[in-house]
Every structure is written in structure tokens, then in C-alpha cells.
Amino acid sequence: MKLYIDPGTGSMLFTILIGVIGASVYSLRMLFIKLRYKLGAGKVEDNTFKKIPYVIFSDNKRYWNIFEPICRELEKRGKEVVYITASPDDPALTTTLTNVKAECIENENKLFTRLNFLNATMVLSTTPGLDVYQWKRSKDVQYYVHIPHAANDITLYRMFGLDYYDAVLLSGDYQIDDIRALENIRNLPQKELLKVGIPYMDEMAKRLEEAPAVPQHERTVLLAPSWGKSAIFGVYGSRIIEVLQKTGYNIIIRPHPQSFSSEKEMLDKLMAEFPESDKLHWNRDNDNFDVLNKADILISDFSGVVFDFALVYNKPIIYTNPQIDVSVYDAWWLKTPLWTASALPRIGRELTDSNMESLKELIDTCIEDSQYAQGRAEVKAETWANFGCGAQKVAEYMVQKYDALTASEEGKA
Known about the structure:
Strand content: 5-15%
CATH architecture of the largest domain: 3-Layer(aba) Sandwich
Structural class: alpha/beta
Number of strands: 13
Radius of gyration: 23 Å
């Protein structure tokens, strides 16, 4: 009799096997490093062994928008933060916040050595996969806290992405329900889950409120695809731009930054085929505020910008269904529909092969139909807790948890 393993289970087992192998190899590497230090062949910097109250780890500069408001709130409370980043051009490295001491470790081996030997009370990060692959829990860190970088499903991390955090700071009840379900399935101890909100979206909303009104302009459509085979250009290629041009509307195309390196040949071809004109613009601004503010509607795929646009700017979207294969994600374990799948139809319309040629009518309907405004209000209520004060909630939690952890340590002493 042949043994059959379904694709989802096979993928899960493969992921576990790779994790075990990766963990074993890295443990041996760490053992070698420790022995090398003890024998005098190498030296860990003194500050590695100095207890740090708060550490923030960011694996990419794009997460500074999440951490900056939190750092400001901690600074108001007189708290010092060590900010470890993997990006040499991270804005954190030039911040004017006096209590934030930023350091860049671009070399991956040095970065993980620093993190894995870290001596700190608390670590806050957006990076999943703690204690799964290279990034290991340091025995000298008391508490690891995760904060997501998007307003959607917390189960769209690779498997076991959050299992070894002590706490997760969330923005919606559906996220809490999903984490509790995963803990129950895997027999994990319950993490501390707190609904704090979305600090970076609070900052966007505040900036929007303070910005001058957008001048009257012709209807403007922003095409902002993600990258990869399942993204808009991967699925529709030049057809989507051709159809958009037929609408007669102003078109702004803002490719994902990764496309300019990973899909350079494809993008160069599209930019040559559809050059800049008075009706079509290619946008590469580092800051997307102005382009999001100017657009009347967004067309995108599985990019997190759809929720930024719909919930912060209160404007409709048109989205493509990427048919995500969840077999490698935590969502696979739950066998329940993604929250995002219920949210998208309430804030816009799906773009398909069959309605592509009616895109102009689709755009007009989304902008003019009041049902989508009502849907945006519903979705916002479900996924954006503590509107306007997310960073304060995070800082309050960090300080209170730090006080509790240090009091506990003093009690043991």
C-alpha cells in the first residue's frame, strides 16, 4: 500500500525538516563562536554584555515608519532605546531623537551573532521567525515582543513565525482569535496579546489631516502592484496599462521597489512601451504620501498599501485575487477563510479577466457607490483599534512590562 501525503502536509513536514536542519547547523555554529571567544580567538564587544532596557530590531529601513512614533513616545518618557538595523541607509541612523542609539549591522553573520548574544530586558521587532532559523532567542533577553507591519491577517507569516515570541501587539480581535487558535492546535503556551492599534497608520492619518486640500483635478487612477508572478504585471502584463489608457483618466504607475531589481527587464520593457506623457506618469518617490493623497482610486493586488489607501485616505480600491497558496503560512493550520478575503469586497471590486475591458465602469462605480464608503468604515472598525494613539499604547505597554520584569528580577535577587 502506498503512503499518500497531501501537498499541504508535505509542505508542512518539509518546512519542519528544514527548520530542524537549520537550527542544528546554526547551533553548532554558535557553539564554535562561543568556544572561539572563550579561547581568546575572538572578542564580543563589551556592550554586548551590558544589560539594555529596550532594544528594537528592524531588518529593513522601511519599518522606521512603524518604530519612529514608538521611539518618540519612549523618549517622552525618558527611556533609552538601542535600535539595531540591517540597513545602512535606515533613517533611524540619522534620527534627532537623543535617547535612540541606532547601530547598523549589515553583515548577516555579525547581525545574528549580535542578536543571539544580546543582553536586554525587552526586544521589540516586526521580524517573524524568532527561534526558527538564524535568529535565536538569547538566554539573556527576558521578553520578546512582536508588532505587525500591516493591517491584515497575522497568519500570513511563514509557519511558526510568531510561536516563540512572548507577546504580540495587535490591532484587531480577529488577529487575537487566530493566534489563540494556533496556540491551541500546537499546544503552545499562551502569549500575551494586546490590542494596541497601528502606529504607522496613525501617523499617516495625522499627516493627512494637517496637509492642504488636494486641488481640483481630473480623475486620477493609481496603479500600485506588488512584485512577482502573482502580482498584476505578472498576471496581466501590459494589458492592464493599455486598458487604463482607454479610460482617458490620469494614470500614475508606482511599481513595487523590488520590481526595479527583481523584475528589471520586464519593467524596463513596460516603461519603454508606455513612456511618460501628460496622462501617464511613472512614480518612484521614496515617500508615497503625495501620490496616495492625489489618487482617487487605487488598483493593486496583495500589497499592504490597499489598506493604507482605503482606511487612511478613505478611498476605494480595485484589487486582484492572487490565489495565495497558504500551504507555507500559518493560515494553513486554521482551515478558515482569511479576514482579508472578507474585507476586500467591502472596500472595493475585484478585477478579473472577464471585467477587465469594463475597467472604466468599474472605476466609476467604486468611486461613486456609497456602499464602499460604508464597507471601509466597517473594515476600519475591525482592524484599527485605538485610532490615533497606537504609539502611546505601545510605549505604555513597554514601560509597564519593563517595570514588571525588572521588579520580578529584583525579587528573585
